[in-house]
Amino acid sequence: MTAPAVSISGQDADALGGDDSILMRQRRDHARLDAMMNRYRSEDLAPGEPDAVWSDIVQVVFSHAFAEETVLWPLLRRVAPDGEELTRQVEEEHQAINELIARIERSPDDPRRAEWIQRAFALIRQDIRDEEDELLPRLRTALGDRKLRRVGAAWEAVRATAPTRPHPGVPRRPPGNAVRGVPLSAFDRLRDLAPGCGPAARRASLAAGALAAGGAVALAVRAARRRG
After folding, report:
1. pTM of the model
2. What is the SS3 assignment for 107-145?
3. Could you tell me which of 48, 120, 130, 10 has the C-alpha nearest to residue 82?
4. Does residue 182 contact residue 204 with C-beta atoms inside 8 Å?
5. Of 11, 55, 71, 225, which has the fewest beta carbons less than 10 angstroms from its beta carbon?
């Protein structure tokens, strides 16, 4: 295995390719997740606030991970000698998080919910450490600042349209994750908004989401064919 590079966790923006580089974007998202997990565990939350914080955590976790799996890990497999091994490990971590959070979402009244959430937080924090200490330094070693910024813009674009809920059955690698995951993002984002909508608005939104999902499937399939 290639000797590990220096963790990105303690480096400044200049060392990581600038504020818009993929490394800085990743680190900001990781810091945001860490702050939200700490907030969830705070004792001064108002009634109902833990559920809102949990929902925010879930949305960030899955949009972030989907963009990694679509943009970053295929690139890492191309540029790092040990990229296959490293990305397989982090994909297994993502799958474990996916399955655990899916169980939490299916069982809102289970007495083990608090225990499961703390386990999910531990898995997320381990995933962050592995990425910042092992995977992302490989991108810093292999890519120049301009390329890191271009990758950052691509990652951000994918994250903005990625699924925001757990889908354990979606593959972890392209093109399967795009073909099956991108259409689900329309429904996820509508579900994120649905609690504040009336029934008529919700039905209209779901109908629009179905149309958007159909278009997303076609685009994903065409993109997969071009890569094949």
Report:
1. 0.83
2. CCCCCCHHHHHHHHHHHHHHHHHHHHHHHHHHHHHHCCH
3. 130
4. no
5. 225
